[in-house]
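Help! Submission page says 'invalid entity' but I think these are all valid:
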Amino acid sequence: MSELINRQYYLAKRPASVPTPEDVPFRDVPVAKPAAGEAIIRNMYISLDPAIRGWMSDVNNYIDPIAINDPIRSSVIGRVVKSNSDLVAEGDVVMSLGAWERYTTAPAAGMNKLDENSGIPLSNFLSVLGPTGLTALFGLMDVGKPKAGETVLVSAAAGAVGSIVGQIAKMQGCHVVGMAGSEEKCRWITDELGFDAAINYKTCGDYEAAIKAACPNGVDVYFDNVGGDILDAALMCLNRFSRVAVCGWISTYNDADAPGPKNLWQLVAESATIQGFVVLDYVERFGEGVGQLAEWLMAGKLQFKEEIIDDLDNVLPGFLKLFDGSNQGKLIIRIPE
Amino acid sequence: MSELINRQYYLAKRPASVPTPEDVPFRDVPVAKPAAGEAIIRNMYISLDPAIRGWMSDVNNYIDPIAINDPIRSSVIGRVVKSNSDLVAEGDVVMSLGAWERYTTAPAAGMNKLDENSGIPLSNFLSVLGPTGLTALFGLMDVGKPKAGETVLVSAAAGAVGSIVGQIAKMQGCHVVGMAGSEEKCRWITDELGFDAAINYKTCGDYEAAIKAACPNGVDVYFDNVGGDILDAALMCLNRFSRVAVCGWISTYNDADAPGPKNLWQLVAESATIQGFVVLDYVERFGEGVGQLAEWLMAGKLQFKEEIIDDLDNVLPGFLKLFDGSNQGKLIIRIPE
């Protein structure tokens, strides 16, 4: 195994704004030898998520920032090529916390075996049946707590998380409104996913007026993927006892000086709640959550998109699509064999 | 009754910052005649609360802003001098929504009779046994949800609400830290009320460092009376799954351009919750709450201060003590017979 060479994208310096190839260059290094209890996997899929941008910054977060010189942390799916653990064996396909790299060496205890013959494409375990779908499920149901007849507003509604949130909210009997960044995305969420209305935030003009027009009964749950001006506008549309579930604030990740929301007084005016969450809060319920998502998926009740990009060397330009909104659904890097 | 003249302090224009006598002048007008179901009370006590400053502004709020030319809305205790309702009779002492005025004409259905011979000073029904105590009780217990062993941080801790919050939190077995604006106030909350530590925010320097020093295990519940820089500092000290109960943001009421909290990302970093509330959310539980507060009071477990100022013509300078922190406990205007 000693001849295996690992191409790694690593954090050379913390990005001042949008990450550049100077911030995240690559290097070819020998694959780290697995310690006892560890295994090496050859990565097949790498998940690209907005949260990774947060980890590149030196701010307090739910997990440590990526250290300077460390590879860019990411969820991965790969095949075990060497194991120093009884938990996984050579040839197994597993999901693991890994990095933007060809090979990941990590504790086998943190790897979840996947059945590559289940008929479910492996990439789905990074999207609708993975952290993305679970974020939508637990964030909406446990943080947003929608009730039938309520109005649920979702930003980044054509995104990997938002598109699932809206469909689950529809299943709860809610009036569901999504905000997305193109006419094509808006059509997809209304015509294909069943959202009641869509707002093209790039052309709608005044956000608050657009939200009020699409949510004539106000907003009971706002599932916030973006923060910034859209959060401020949504705050002005909240109903009494409404809930804002904060998944992440992609609009602010590349701007360390982004101001705080100016309309937060609405919390007192409407006895409203803002709650942050991460999917890791629900790790003990992942099995339950995947089961629920799989049931809906098999019943034809959940649609989703994956944008799969070959190959590892496209990881940074692929990642940046999250920030200009040019991706179509869940972004995944595939590394062909 | 037609000869009764009412001195009223009213909203001539919305204050740009700290309310001035030009914003809130007085007028002497005939007392409004009571319609069917209404009564006139001769006010004995007027409650001065930070929330009133919010009602003077034309922002969305949990109740309508005070209209220009209307008297300044306030809770009052008074004696019925004329009743057009079976619910209250001449001579009854009642609490009501009233105004900064000598006489209030209001619906009897909104008046709560008080027993002036119970041995409890009437003013207490505006402080520890009134909206102030109930705000502390429900805000801490239902929004903050403290558990034994957790750390509870309270701002404006020597104030009417904060001082009750801290004492209730101590009864829950919490480590309780208060922030107040003078050494005297800090001594009062630690030496008399049993807070574990106090921070003099006027002399402590860096808020975040001071909070971290006084809360070595971090903050699980922050009962926020002030907003602004202290909220931002408290956000940086939050523990995972912590709760911020927002009672009001007195530091921002006189500054329409106050920026939003810049550290709100901490909600996601710590899966924390910020929830706004007003005591009116709990109106159906007022009886239960007053009973609980009275039980603690009679058991000697609750201490409180009232700063009672004579007379109606001191209402505006009295009110402004809330904003420079020169008041000592619950501010009440008394109008001697």
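Support: the input was valid. A stray whitespace character was the problem, and the output above is from the cleaned input. Chain A touches chain B at residues 59-62, 236, 240-241, 246-249, 252, 259-278, 281 (CB under 8 Å).
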